[in-house]
Predict the 3D structure of the following.
Amino acid sequence: MEWDDLVFEEIELFDGSLEVIEAFDFRQKKNRNRHGGREMFIPIVDKLAQALAPLDRSKGGTVLKTAYGRPFAEKSLTGMMAHWNKQAGIPEGYTLHGLRRTFGTYLAECNIQARAIMEAMGHSSMTVTDEYVREANKKRIAVDIARAINEREAKRDAMKQRAALRVVK
């Protein structure tokens, strides 16, 4: 993403209100040879705004730059991710792709519709998106099952605490 991709756009929301949104608006480079790249519109959430605030925007170019002020190559960004993880005390094995998967899972766990997740992730089909939704639903189902068991056991325990019935002749 480049600083030139950062835009302020007036958007009419579902409730009919108008809001000026700061967002990155760009064409994804992934699959650009096959599909021409997917058009992406990524609104800036509060935590991202805080992370971007101290960065120097005056020189333009890519948002993340090397120490030499150049864009990261894919492999060098992967290496920097490992370096940043080490600096932060994060165990080895956490990757940029893992962050991407975490984002998809997070959206599914927030109960975002599958189609919206597909758009946010830039997927060209629902196949991968469905994995995120299935995983989130598995967790929800497991929690529902645990709650049902707890309720049933509480009812059974309450029944045991009642006095035994006596048959009177």
In short: DSSP finds six helices and three strands in the chain.
